[in-house]
Write a structure and sequence with these properties.
about 280 residues; alpha/beta; Rossmann fold; binds S-adenosylmethionine
Length: about 280
């Protein structure tokens, strides 16, 4: 079981991206009002003209795995994406969440009392976070990655191979709302990063209940809360078609508690959008 102090000691050397005070003021006085209140048709035309890959990927699959890959990469060619991806608060927060999630998962694997540890990743996309963690962990581990969209898997296998963990990942196409039908080896750690914001409360509780029934007491679940502190929710909804459900860490913890998890500890990333939370299966 991990406590707040231990979790902080695991993550205190991480190199996070931050928004400086001047940039924060400029964003809230200038960029965010423009993005949120200019007509969506005009913004879409500008993004289309600017060949924004981030916008194009969201128009095909709002909040999908490709938009995540573009945001994680962080060094786009197009001017529109240099603003959205390079300097956008949401993209910076996403990269911070990836660093935080990967480090916590790596240490949870390392503190598991047996090897190989098994990580079950729900809404995993190509698995960039868990493959970072598998590559960083010193203990033996493998991961089962579940996603509704199998387009992500080939790219996922390729990046896993590049990180030297190609033989440690297994991809399953499936809807996490039906996870009870897919559960195999009991997981030592369950990862729900980047998925709860697309699920209703009752869906989160039923997914967490299904995995909890399969876990030993004391095993961990890792998930993230999300706050609209990035300042551009209206833009995301109207221009990208992205509808996220915002929940505080406390609200999500209450849902996870209904499924049998407790002893939560949470770590914020410095842009103020995400907390990554670790909970434990109760007795
Ligand atoms: C925002 S991406 C997050 C990807 C990855 N977890 C990360 O944080 O980098 C959300 C992923 O969840 C998947 N997804 C959304 N709803 C799902 C569902 N009901 N069942 C399985 N996967 C789902 C999407 O296909 C997408 O790959």
């Amino acid at each position: 079981m991990v406590d707040q102090g231990l979790l902080e000691s695991w993550t205190d050397d991480l190199d996070f991206e931050r928004v400086g005070a001047v940039r924060r003021v400029l964003k809230s006085l200038f960029f965010h009002p423009l993005a949120n209140h200019l007509p969506p048709g005009l913004l879409k035309a500008i993004l289309r003209f600017g060949k924004s890959e981030l916008a194009a990927s969201n128009w095909v699959d709002p909040g999908g795995w490709q938009s995540m890959v573009i945001s994680y990469h962080g060094r786009p060619e197009q001017i529109a994406d240099k603003i959205l991806v390079g300097a956008g608060s949401m993209a910076m927060a996403l990269r911070n969440r990836r660093r935080l999630g990967a480090r916590l998962l790596a240490r949870l694997i390392d503190t598991c009392d047996h090897e190989p540890a098994h990580a079950l990743c729900l809404g995993a996309g190509p698995g960039q976070i868990i493959t970072d963690a598998l590559a960083e962990a010193t203990h033996e581990a493998y991961a089962t990655l579940v996603d509704i969209n199998s387009d992500a898997f080939e790219f996922g296998r390729e990046i896993a191979r590049e990180k030297g963990v190609g033989d440690k990942v297994r991809f399953i196409r499936g809807d996490v709302r039906e996870i009870h039908e897919m559960l195999g080896h009991p997981p030592d750690v369950v990862k729900m990063l980047g998925i709860c914001e697309y699920l209703e409360d009752d869906q989160i509780v039923s997914i967490a209940k299904a995995v909890a029934q399969h876990m030993q007491p004391g095993r961990a679940i890792v998930f993230n809360s999300i706050s609209p502190a990035h300042g551009t929710d209206r833009f995301f909804r109207r221009v990208f078609g992205l509808h996220m459900i915002y929940r505080s860490p406390q609200k999500l913890q209450a849902l996870m508690e209904m499924a049998g998890f407790s002893d939560f500890v949470s770590i914020p990333e410095p842009v103020g959008v995400y907390h990554v939370v670790v909970g434990h299966k109760g007795d």
